[in-house]
Amino acid sequence: MRNFKSIILCFCSLVFLTVSCDTQEDEVYFDQSLLIGKWQSGTELEKYQSDNTGATWDTADDVEEEEAQKFTWTLEKDNLEQIHLMQEGGKVPKEYTITLLTSGELEYSDSYGKTKRFKKVN
Amino acid sequence: MKTFKKIIKVILISTLLLLIGVSLAIYYLFNAGNLTSLINKQAKNYLKCETTIKNVEPTFFASYPFFGLEINDLCLKETTTADTLVYAKECTLALDVKSFLLNNDIILKSFYLKSGYVNLEIDTNNNINLDIIKTSDSEETKADTDSTFAYKNIKLTNIVVDDFKAKFIDKSSMMESYIEDLDLNLLLEYTKNSVILNTDVGLKNLVFQINDSTEIYSDIKDAKIKLKIDGNIEDNINGDMTVSMPDIMFSMTKDTLISKFNFNSHIPFSLKVKEKNINFKRAEFNIHNHKLFLDGDITVNKNNNIEANIDYSTTKWNISELISLVPRVYSAPLKQLEIEGETQLEGSVKGIYSDNSFPIVVANFKYDNGVVKYLDNPTIDKIKTSLSAIINLNKGKMSNLSIHNAEANVLGNNFIVNGKVSDFMDNPVYDINAKANVGFSSIKSYVPKDMLRSLEGFILADIHTKFKQSTIDSKKYHQIYLTGDVQVDNLDVNMNDTMKVNIPSAKIAIVLPSHNAMGRDNLFGKLNFKSESMNITVSPDVTAQTHDLDVSLNINDLMEGLSAPITSVSFDLGKLYARADTISFSTNHTSGKFIIAPRLKNQREVIDIETEINSNDIAITSKDTVMFDVKNFFTKTNLEYDTLETNPISQWKPVIDMVMSDAKFNLGEKLKGRIPSTSFTLTPEKMVIEKANVILGNSDFNLSGEFSNLSKFLDHDALLKGDFDFVSDKTDIMQLMDIFNGMGTEETAKEENLEEQKKQLDDSDPFMVPKGVDIRLNTKIKESIVNQHTIENIQGALTVKDGSLILEQIGFTSKAANMQLTAIYRSPRRNHLFTSIDFHLLNIDIAELVSLVPYVETISPMITSFDGKGDFHLAAETYLKSDYSLKTSTIRGAAAFEGEDLILMDSETFSSIASKLMFENKTENKIDKISVEMTVFRDEIDLYPFLISMDDYSAVISGQVNMDQQINYHVSVTDCPLPFRLGLNINGTIDNPTFKMAACKYKHLYSPKKQSAREKQVLRLKKLISDALKANVKPVK
Predict the structure, then answer these.
(1) What is the pLDDT of residues B9-30, one digit of tens each?
(2) Which residue spans within B881-965 are E strands per DSSP?
């Protein structure tokens, strides 16, 4: 019985090892110049500037553009990273994977499967 | 005989010839035709004008023994203009020629002139038309030398003029006068030793007018003048003159001043010629039925000065009749003035009148039964006064007026004035005593009814004043002397049924001390008000009572160019009790002063105001609860008011000192405590709080510090700066929050305008941080209690700076940890409030951490599964709505926890995880090291992968939880006795999680050589979060 358990464990380990191997995906690149501008998704807006700064605000919460909260951003391949800057020094990173970026549309999703779709409003 | 006959013959012939000659001469002379012709011829030799006499007839026998002459139609005419100069219809005279020729006497037995006329005119060059006599230079010289009166006796009897007219025109002065029907009867006997004159003049009409701009015109009708003189020309002459003018009219500029005015007089007199003295014996003048009597002497002394010694008196004159004599043109202002009463004047004129001397006039004036009424003003009646005036116009002498018991009655109130006015003709000096006895009920009807319902009480005033007229004219009011006492009894005022004032007894003393010199500190007047008790009712719910009130008001001199006098008020109040609804206010032994002193600064007025209040006991009571009670209260205020300044501080330049000690307050079940001592000073530049001790509940505070830049702040030139120290031995924060919870929201709401209030009806009223201020509150609290945790040595600063409220680097210790806190609150707009927190707990016990910061459990529910100590860092920010609800889209947060040697507490969740991951479940699972980073972005809470090492097991935990408690965790087992790496996904809700085996996400997270790019990225972000949080940590002292 003990040997049986050991065999089962070895088998399972093999299975997990097999499962844990990542498959090599195709790399996707997006032109970050397309990101520059103001994007809107419902009441939520994001603004990306060429100096890699940006801001976000939600008019549903009675926030105007000049009151927007700032972030810095980088776009490498399809990985969009926003570092949201708190006014007194804290930083809140957010990572998204861009799935669509054109001159008029932006779509990204996070690692938990939440997707947001924006339209350019400039 | 023959010779005798010849002589007789010669005499007879001579006599006959003489008689013939004389007869011829008399015939020639007394022949009317010859005489008329002779006089007409001779007249041309002596007169320049054209002279015609119709007939001149001697009447020797008819008037024997006097020589008489009867002239008819005598007419003198101007040669060039042919105007009649003199005309006499009939003129008869009888002269004693013998006496005239032999004795140089003029004895005129009769003279009768009928229908005479004289036309006298002076042209614009002052030439008179009656200059008609031809004279030579020698004659003029002779006339001059013979001008002395040389007649011994004059006797004129039966001198009669009937129907005489005259006209006089002076073109140079534009004056004209006419006389109509002048009748004259005259008898004059003048001898060396005696004179008798008896004349009777009647005048039908006398017109006099001046045609210049004054346009004076007078007309006297039916005037009669009688004059009798009898006496010794060298010694004493007695006379009696009566004048009767029953109809006098006088106008000026065509305004009739008097009309139908009558004037009569009877003047008995005696004249001492040698002494040049005239004596009047009760001479009577009746001026339109108002009699004036004169008695006394007028003498021309050796120096030709007039010396008077006259007594005069009047009968009682009715003053309303006197006023009726005021010309209509001047009477308009008097139309609505009704004056009644009787006046009487008597006095004397005594002394010498010369170029440099005037007689002294004494006038005693009486006015009785007087009544004065003007429009609807109260009638002044029972006027009774006696005035005595001594008028001395001589140089260096004074004229004085004395007022003796001038009494009057107004609305039943009695007024009495006594005094004197010295030098009233030059520089009057008044010395007046006045007394008044006034009943207020009498004046009630003169106050508008809507202002006053009832007024009762009495005042008795006694005032004495001395001042010069020049003092008033030159506005040197400080030189007035006045003392006055006013006694008020039973004053009861009901203004509108609700506003009532009752003063049983009060004394008012007024003093104007009089100063010669004028200066800033010169006291002009003092007013003192004393009342044992006073009751004031503003409304049924608002009343006040005072006891032993003593108020002194000092009014200083009103200086030129200033709008108000320098005034100070000091008061001493034995007791005050005031009530407004259920709130009452009482003080004992309160004193104070108030000074307002205008002065000129750079040629404009500024006003200095000083106040000082000192009270031994002030209490505010609500029903039976003493809300506030202070035993000692002192405040002193200096203000300098300048209207040209713009902001209130610069406009008032306040310097205020306030000291209060031994105070208690009880403003509710919770808000009760003591204020042992408080003092502060306010100047235009800063407000310094020396100390403000407050004991409230379990807490005690002492606040000290200062506000600065007050003026510049109000001028918008600088921020209002404040730097305060808040020192407390013990502060029970939760109790204070409980006490002040909700306090002030009602008051704040009241300050909003209506529109804003409507807008905010559904919202709470958030705290708006003031802008333009930079205020720092340095706290030093030895011991504070928060959530039943004792926190010690709280030190840090609370700053309000230009719209931001910052709790800056507050450091404190508790048995759980050393703590550092920075918190910020800003209110850019009412519905957009910013708050952030930077919080560090060093060496914190996890259980204490959760207890102190319950929010930690919200963002990291599993934290409660650990026991032990570590360092906790938290930074978070969000915007809030006006009701302080979170704006989710703005939530940002980051937290990090680092701990070593922790114990993972046994729990149902852990048991589930351990069983699925085949952990060895012990009662006490030790964790060697843990480093957790979490972030909050909107409603997402990200738990960055962290490693838990326990015995032979290591697991990486990561995931996301949403605000709605939905979890999405993943556990990667990185080290375990098993040959493979397990992963577990935990989903669902915190209360109801579901577990699902999954691939291991982070198997090489802490194996640098094997790390994937993703794992490196995760570690980079963890470091970024951690470094950013720790950057604000201050070294622990």
Answers:
(1) 766 676 666 666 666 666 655 5
(2) 892-904, 925-937, 940-950, 953-962
